[in-house]
Request: fold
Amino acid sequence: MLHPTQITIPTLVRIKEGALDRLGRYLQRSGYRRVAVLSSQGLSEILLERARNSLRVENIESPAWTEIAAHGLEEAAQCFVALPKGIAAIVGLGGGKALDVAKYVAFLGRIPYFAVPTSLSNDGFCSPQSSLTIRGRRRSLPAAVPYGVVIDTLVCRHAPSLLTLSGVGDLVSKFTAVRDWKLAFHATGEVVNDFAALISDGSIHAFLNHPQFDLDGLRLLATSLLLNGVAMEICGSSRPASGSEHLISHALDAISARPRMHGLQVGVATYLCSLLQGENSARIARVFEATGFWKAIADDPFSRREWLDAVRLAPSVKEDYFTVLSSRDVLPEVERFLREDPWLAPCFQE
Reply:
């Protein structure tokens, strides 16, 4: 007998130019008049003042406004304990660390959460998990899916280009993640949630048809990343958004002398894994060329030795997590691709 699964998805979604200046109005309309704001350390004072002003205009109280410098579990717990009484909603404003901590604080307090990312570096702003550090290691912990997602496309357009390229890398990883999920079904019988896989796979194509960083392109990128988060909530796991390419990135985080931005590592690993899978490599290469992703990586190339070590380590990062890396000894193919593939070779050095 099949049992219905309850899922949570965002109720309020605003992805448009000027959305940051309307944050207070969105909170007021939703009935949340007393909020705690957790913002990124070093966030532009202009952006902070715009957010503050939007709350003042709508008479939204913000008795707690905390700057987030670290994203450890202990820091998140301290933020939760320090919350003033009567907080109706948590607002995460800025980049990944602040959003992950805010999301987890909202989860602990069973309080509605509003995600207000100021860049589009990954799909974490709408995922049902928080990436926090525990004893120096990053862990994915259950968290609150946002009640509201507010993305100002003009703000994101002015974010550093590497952050947006990181988002592109995280987006295209859904190609290889979904393929790995289906490989796991055939190899181990792991159940595939077809609807979650369909959302994750299908969300990529809108941006692929307009791979630009103008306001419309950023709207498409933001929407696609949001849908990836929803896909994870639907199936109750990271499978539709994370496969072999993420295992390689996690391994790099553990062994690299200089780990790079998550989406940059994941993007290169996605193209590499697509070659191993025999699918989608041409599509991925085209969008990377159109957005300048390849050039950005080649300007600061990776260590070939570290990547070979990471590929060797990757299958052990998650137990019982079948991907193309588990299907055979891929190291000889990987070494050849890193040296000979016309897109990958410029991205690596000895």
